[in-house]
């Protein structure tokens, strides 16, 4: 699905650091008094979006990440609520994809769904993407993720997920808890609250013992 739009060069220069100038929704005295959106969307840049679930919908209020390349996008985590009525994740993602295609015309944009780890507050929305056209949901369990990344045959390999010029490098790393791993992105200052920063990127614990690093 390459389409006819202008190709975006993600590789020729390093991403510029940005300040997260955003006030995250932080809950209300009660659900009755809640006026926040079900999902807060923050554009880190035109290719990277940070989503936060409303704390009134689920107290975990997890952060999700949507990254675009030239030909496809990756959604990292699907939140803590399965119900599309109370947590309309697919609608929000579809809207962002639609806006992306309007700004950068293509024949379409395939979607890959990955996870930071297999806890319920990071995978509950998977079912919303069942049957979505041009979408692949990789299970958060170790076996599914390792098979997708190819770590079962070679845990030391560097797996690459190409979004169309924007490449994620996936590395198997020691797990803190079984079965856990790390997901990193080299985009400066793109840590969400609660992440542990390392030189050159941000790290999240993830479902299989692997790491995902965005090189652009």
The poorly predicted ranges are 176-211
Q: Major sheet, described briefly?
A: 6 strands, mixed
- Mean pLDDT level: 79
Count up the helices.
Answer: 3
Beta-strand content estimate: 25-35%
Rg from alpha-carbon coordinates: 17 Å
What series of H and E elements makes up the topology?
A: EEEEHEHEHEEEEEE
Comma- or semicolon-separated keywords:
single chain; 216 residues; alpha+beta; 6-stranded mixed sheet; 3-stranded antiparallel sheet; 12 strands; 12% helix; globular
Describe the overall structure:
About 17% of the residues have low confidence. The two termini are 21 Å apart. Helix content is 12%, strand content 28%. The longest helix has 15 residues. The protein has 3 helices and 12 strands; from the N terminus they run ββββαβαβαββββββ. Helix 2 links the parallel strand 5 and strand 6. It has a 6-stranded mixed β-sheet with strand order 1-2-3-4-5-6, covered by helices on one side. The protein has a 3-stranded antiparallel β-sheet with strand order 7-8-12, with no helix packed on it. It is α+β, with helices and mostly antiparallel strands.
Layout: helices, strands, pairs:
Blueprint: E1 39-45, E2 48-53, E3 63-68, E4 72-76, H1 89-103, E5 110-114, H2 120-123, E6 135-137, H3 142-149, E7 158-162, E8 167-171, E9 181-185, E10 196-198, E11 201-206, E12 211-214
Parallel strand pairs: 4-5, 5-6
Antiparallel strand pairs: 1-2, 2-3, 3-4, 7-8, 8-12, 9-11, 10-11
What's the gist of this structure?
This protein is α+β, with helices and mostly antiparallel strands.
């Amino acid at each position: 699905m390459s389409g006819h739009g202008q190709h975006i060069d993600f590789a020729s220069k390093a991403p510029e650091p940005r300040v997260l100038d955003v006030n995250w929704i932080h809950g209300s005295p009660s659900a009755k008094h809640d006026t926040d959106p079900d999902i807060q969307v923050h554009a880190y840049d035109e290719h990277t979006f940070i989503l936060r679930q409303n704390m009134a919908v689920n107290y975990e209020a997890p952060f999700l990440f949507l990254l675009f390349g030239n030909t496809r996008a990756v959604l990292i985590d699907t939140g803590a609520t399965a119900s599309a009525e109370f947590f309309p994740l697919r609608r929000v993602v579809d809207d962002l994809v639609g806006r992306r295609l309007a700004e950068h015309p293509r024949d379409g944009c395939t979607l890959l769904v990955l996870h930071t780890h297999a806890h319920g507050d990071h995978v509950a929305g998977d079912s919303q993407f069942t049957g979505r056209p041009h979408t692949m949901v990789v299970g958060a369990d170790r076996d599914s993720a390792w098979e997708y990344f190819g770590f079962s045959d070679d845990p030391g390999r560097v797996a690459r997920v190409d979004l169309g010029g924007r490449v994620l490098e996936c590395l198997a790393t020691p797990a803190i808890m079984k079965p856990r791993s790390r997901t990193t992105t080299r985009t400066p200052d793109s840590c969400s609250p609660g992440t542990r920063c390392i030189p050159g990127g941000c790290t999240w614990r993830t479902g299989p013992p692997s790491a995902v690093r965005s090189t652009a």
